[in-house]
Amino acid sequence: MSYLDDPRVYFAAERTLLAWQRSALAYIALGFVVEKFGLFMRYLNLSNQISTIHSSISAFIGLMLILLGTFISLLSAIQHKRFLKSLSNQEVPPNYFLFMGPLISYVLCFGGALMAAWIVSGFVI
After folding, report:
1. CB neighbours of 94 closer than 8 A, spacing ≥ 6?
2. How far is the C-alpha of 11 from the C-alpha of 69, rounded, in Å?
3. Residues 73, 109: contact at Cβ < 8 Å?
4. How many Å is the maximal CA-CA distance in the chain?
5. DSSP of 62-77
6. Where do runs of H (alpha helix) occur along 1-125?
7. Which of 4, 13, 28, 106 is 20–30 Å from 60 (CA)?
8. 72-91 burial: b if 16+ Cβ within 10 Å, else e
9. Is the pTM of this model over 0.85?
C-alpha cells in the first residue's frame, strides 16, 4: 500500500504500462518481420540454397516472438490492474479513465493472438 497521496504515483505506473506496451508491440512486429523474411527468402530462392527447413525455422522463431509480445502485453495489463488496487483515493486522479491503459494492452494481446493463429493456420495448410 502506497502512502504518498500524490496523483503522480498513478501517472508513473501508467508510464510503466506504456513502456511495456511498446516492448510488446516491438516483439510482435519483430516476430512478424522474421516470419515474413523466411517467406521472402523462399520466394527469392537464390540458386535453390534456401530449403523449406530454413523457412520453417524462420516461421517458428517469428511465431515465438509474437507469442512473447502477446504474453508481455497480457502480463503488463494484469500487473497494472493489481497496482491500481493498492492505490489510495488521493493517488487516483479524479475523472480519469483508468481503464484505457489496460484496455490497450488487452487489444494488443488479442491482436497478437490473432496474428499467431493466422501464422499457425499457414503451417497447417
Report:
1. none
2. 23
3. yes
4. 67
5. HHHHHHHHHHHHHHHH
6. 8-44, 52-85, 100-124
7. 106
8. bbbebbebbeebbeebeeeb
9. no
